[in-house]
Design goal:
Helix content is 35%, strand content 32%. It is an alpha+beta fold and 145 residues long. It has a single domain, classed as Roll (Nuclear Transport Factor 2, Chain: A), CATH 3.10.450. The chain is globular.
Length: 145
């Protein structure tokens, strides 16, 4: 993960970005690849109610919120199938102590085996605290629908 961060920092120094809100030189494809990967890993950990994995993927504050939401969830297995996933980098900011990426996710998910896919649209804030060396962590999720 640390080598990915180094490559991302180097990539943000070269090449033009055509995304408004993203600094010139940002490696948009790499950020979006990591964001999509985080989305899928977090969804799988949520379905399993795996707090250890969620703790590796989310900030401490968000983990507390996720822990509370899991305690409110009905018993039994949870299954979410991501049918379609689109990601768009809205901004990438260097806040001195962390890189913060705002990513809009949209697509179709199915939460019941026999159910149809439902559209979703969310804003995710991912933070990469430079001193911590833990890579990208989900800091906030906001529904946009």
């Amino acid at each position: 993960m640390l080598s990915r961060l180094r490559r991302l920092r180097q990539a943000t120094r070269r090449g033009p970005s055509t995304t408004p809100g993203v600094p010139a030189g940002a490696e948009v494809d790499e950020v979006l690849r990591l964001a999509r990967q985080s989305f899928m890993h977090l969804q799988a950990a949520w379905d399993r109610a795996d707090l250890d994995v969620l703790g590796h993927l989310a900030t401490a504050a968000l983990l507390d919120d996720l822990r509370h939401q899991l305690s409110q969830r009905a018993p039994g297995p949870n299954r979410t199938e991501v049918l379609e996933l689109d990601a768009r980098l809205l901004s990438l900011e260097d806040m001195n102590e962390a890189l913060v990426a705002s990513v809009e996710f949209s697509g179709l998910i199915r939460e019941r085996h026999e159910g149809a896919g439902a559209p979703f649209r969310e804003l995710w804030l991912l933070a990469n605290v430079k001193a911590a060396g833990h890579g990208w962590k989900l800091a906030r999720v906001q529904s946009l629908q």
